[in-house]
């Protein structure tokens, strides 16, 4: 690698960094939140474009930046449409899954999501809960994290945060009550 190539990489890196910073600030906080599958694809694609701009001498800086901006526009449009349309939301986003409710593990859902019982128990322990009987519900969230909802005074409480679970799980939950 000669001095000219080092200079190009340095200048292009600095310019790309400034453009990325500007575009990410413009695109809003949603771009930097926990990722769903579409966000992950966009992030990997952005990294690939950025890497190609830096390494590939034949890649024109403006073409790479144009692709970068297009990807961020796609990400913005997907989040905009999914927040305003139930159809787009169902297509683009996963839904939370109820893994445990009031003493009952939903083994079929755990198998489908590839979550072993040990991970559910780990999530319960991480919340400082020592007994499964003290847990109202355990949910696998759309970003892959596991949420634990404790019972209040060892009693099941109204869990209105479970309304976005799919209908099949809601029916299972209602059957238990």
From TrEMBL:
Every YetF C-terminal domain range: 85-155
Transmembrane annotation, as ranges: 6-24, 36-55, 61-81
Pfam families (UniProt xref): DUF421 (PF04239), YetF_N (PF20730)
Main localization, broad class: membrane
Keywords on record: Cell membrane, Membrane, Transmembrane, Transmembrane helix
Subcellular location: Cell membrane
Top-level lineage group: Bacteria
A cellular component annotation (GO) from this entry: plasma membrane
InterPro entries documented for this protein: DUF421, UPF0702_alpha/beta_dom_sf, YetF_N
Chain ranges of the YetF-like N-terminal transmembrane domain: 17-80
Membrane topology: Multi-pass membrane protein
PANTHER family to which the protein is assigned, alphabetical: UPF0702 TRANSMEMBRANE PROTEIN YCAP (PTHR34582:SF6)
Family listed: Belongs to the UPF0702 family.
Full protein name: DUF421 domain-containing protein
Biological source species: Alkalibacterium pelagium
């Amino acid at each position: 690698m000669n001095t000219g190539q080092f200079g190009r990489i340095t200048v292009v890196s600095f310019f790309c960094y400034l453009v990325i910073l500007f575009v990410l600030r413009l695109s809003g906080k949603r771009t930097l939140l926990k990722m769903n599958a579409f966000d992950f694809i966009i992030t990997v694609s952005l990294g690939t474009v950025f890497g190609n701009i830096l390494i590939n001498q034949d890649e024109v800086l403006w073409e790479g930046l144009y692709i970068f901006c297009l990807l961020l526009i796609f990400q913005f449009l997907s989040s905009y449409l999914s927040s305003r349309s139930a159809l787009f939301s169902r297509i683009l986003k996963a839904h939370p899954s109820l893994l445990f409710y009031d003493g009952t593990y939903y083994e079929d859902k755990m198998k489908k999501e590839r979550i072993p019982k040990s991970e559910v128990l780990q999530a319960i322990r991480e919340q400082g809960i020592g007994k499964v009987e003290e847990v109202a519900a355990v949910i696998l969230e759309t970003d892959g994290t596991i949420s634990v909802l404790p019972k209040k005074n060892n009693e099941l409480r109204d869990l209105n945060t479970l309304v976005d679970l799919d209908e099949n799980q809601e029916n299972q939950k209602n059957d238990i009550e």
